[in-house]
Amino acid sequence: MALNLRHPAGKPRLLASLRDAVAELPSNRRLELEITESVMMLEPSVVNDTLATLANLGVNVALDDFGTGYSSLSYLKMLPLDVLKIDRSFVNDIGENPSDDAVLETIIALSKNLNLRVVAEGVETETQLKFLRKLKCHSIQGYFVSEPKSPKD
Length: 153
Fold this sequence. Notes:
The protein is of the alpha/beta class and 153 residues long. It is built from seven helices and five strands, in the order H-E-H-H-E-H-E-H-H-E-H-E.
């Protein structure tokens, strides 16, 4: 669902849709909304206010594709985030590129120090999985676990 938060009706429509979605969830489930760095950078004060409202609704917020856009560490401490999703470009060369290994290790440590859950995207090999387990990455996504599924599945 694409909504323009700059349009006067954008934010209320988004919040109403999410409030309805949360109300329909079983009590043991939570809704998680993913935003990309580029969305986060559009109007930081509007995004921050919207994310704070979402947090009050019980919606978890994940920052997707971290490290590929205009990352600013100040946003990590300012925005009410729950999850940091590490882009697959950092996972691809695990064990082959020491710089990528160091960046990945640093992102995971930083996330944990900020009390954010960490998800590594694009995990396709056992080597990648073992490395991420060693770093105590919270969750992984990728073809190693499963191919993408339809909403019905």
